[in-house]
Write a structure and sequence with these properties.
Length: about 290
Amino acid sequence: MAHFNRHPITPWLLMAPQLIIVGVFFFWPAFQAIEQAFYIEDAFGLSREFTGLTNFISVLSEPEYLETLWTTMVFSFSVALGAMALALGMAVLADRVIRGANTYKTFLIWPYAVAPAVAGVLWLFLFDPTLGILPELLSAIGIDWNHNLNGNQALLLVVLASIWKQMSYNFVFFLAGLQAIPKSLLEAAAMDRAGPWRRFWTITFPLLSPTSFFLLVMNVVYAFFETFGTIDATTSGGPGGSTRTLVYKVYEDGFVGQDLGSSAAQSVLLMVIVGVLTLIQFKYVEKKVQY
């Protein structure tokens, strides 16, 4: 057994299942998409013609694509910052609770176990103009809610549903970060007559900056890719494309419209955009992180 552990092939054997899964379900489709982006194919995949950068030029020249890109940016950063801010506030409050703390933490973590499509359906019923409870409450204060006709309300709906789905993930990390902060630092600041807000902004929040940076990257990736199920279950990209994000447009053009070349080019552009945003975050945001 000891001889087996020292064999150089042992680590590769242990990593083989995960490497196979990543290769089959991530790298292979990614390489296929990159290759397909340079071709025009028929809907059945029986023939194709090499066109170079034609698909990319066509996509980038579409006003609809640029509008979708702007919607995606607004949606993604609203979800990322909203989910982080809400989770941080809940983590701070939960960290102060003594009696029944485990119960509160369990209920706050539960939404992460809900599938994105299920989360979308739940919020769809809450805001349904005919059957929902919240539209009745909003009408009582003079707000006419109908996300089926109002694009801004539809975008707000998918943002709220996506924030609710992701905030539990952020809550776990923020709570762990808060519990790792030495209490002696906060007690010393309190003895120096620093108020709760000053203690939070000068001690707690700077010490949470590594966690916040990690969550910012993860939440942006989540908003770009993993919110497809939520959008599809609530608004299906409507009304009038007001909630159509880049990942949803890839689905519409590829699976619905059967424009495989354009869909592949959009998926490549989407990977590039997310990669560039991640590099920007590491280059500029990480400088303010205090390790």
